[in-house]
Amino acid sequence: MKRFTISLDDDIAEKLEELMRERGYQNRSEAFRDMLRDIFASKQLARGDAQALAIVSYSYNHHKRQLSERINELQHERMDLVISTLHIHVTHETCAETIFIRGPMSEIESFALSIIAVPGVHYGKINLIPEGMESEEEPADHDHGEEHGHAHEHPHAHPHPHSHEHGNEES
Question: Helix axis angle, 67-77 relative to 105-116, nearest 10°?
Answer without folding.
Answer: 170
